[in-house]
User: Fold this.
Amino acid sequence: MATQQTKTLARTMLAPSVVLLFIWMAVPLALTLWFSFQQYNPLNPMRDGFIGFNNYLLFFNNPAFLWSILNTLTIVVSVLVITLVGGILLALLLDQPMWGQGIVRILVISPFFVMPPVAALVWKNMIMHAEYGVISDMLRAVGLTPIDWFGRFPLMSVIIIVAWQWLPFATLILLTALQSLDGEQKEAAEMDGANFFDRFIYLTLPHLARAITVVILIQTIFLLSVYAEILVTTNGGPGYASTNLPFLVAQKATLEFKIGQASAGGIIAVILANIVAFFAMRAVGKNLDR
Assistant:
C-alpha cells in the first residue's frame, strides 16, 4: 500500500516530464490557434494582421472542405473494416500449427515497417500501374483490359494501400489476444459439440473484444492523419476525389502559402480528431470495464 510520502515523491519525479509534455503539445497548438486568426502569407508579409474568424469562414466555404471531411471519414471507416476483418482471419490462420510458422508471421507483419511514401511508390509504380503494374499484367493474361486505378478509383486505391500497411498491426494485436485464450475452454466447447463457427461467435470473438477496441482506437488516431499515401499517388485528385482534411491543410500551407487558412484547417482537424477519439475512448472504456 503506497503511503502519502511515496505518492508525493512519485508526483515530484513525474512532474518534469508532465510539464515538458504539456509544453510540447500546448505551444504548437497555441501558435496554430493564433495564426488561424491572422492574415499571414509569407510571400506578402505587408498584409499581416488580425482578421477574426475569416480564415475559418474561407476554409468552410472552400469547395474541397466537405469532400475532405467525407474522404477522411471514408478512409478511416474503410481501413478499419478491412484491417479488422482481415486481421481476425489472418490471426486465426497464424494461430494454427504449420510448417515455417515463425517465417510466415514475420512476412505477414513486415509491411507495417515499410515507410508510407515507400509503400505508396511501390503500389503506384509496381502493383497498380495502368501499364506496367502486376495487376495489369494479370488482367491482360486473362484477356481483360487493365484498369487505371488512380484515375478511375483514386480513393479506393488509397484505402487499399493504407489498409495493406495497417493490416499487420491489427493482425499482431489480435493474434496476441487470440493466443491468450485458454485452451481448456476450446477443448470444453469441442467436447460439448460446438462447431468452428459457434466457437468463433460465442468464445473467440468475445475474447477478442478488448483487442479489437484497442486496434480501433490506435488506428483511428493515425488514420485521421493520412497524407503521404495521397501525396505520392493521387495528389488529392482527380479534382477532390481523394483529398482528405490533412492533405487540404497541407495544400493551403505549402502550395497556396495561406498560413492562416491552413491553421484554421488544422484547428478543425484537431476538433474532428478529438470528437472521433472521444467516441472511440468510450467504446474502449466499455469493453475494458467488462
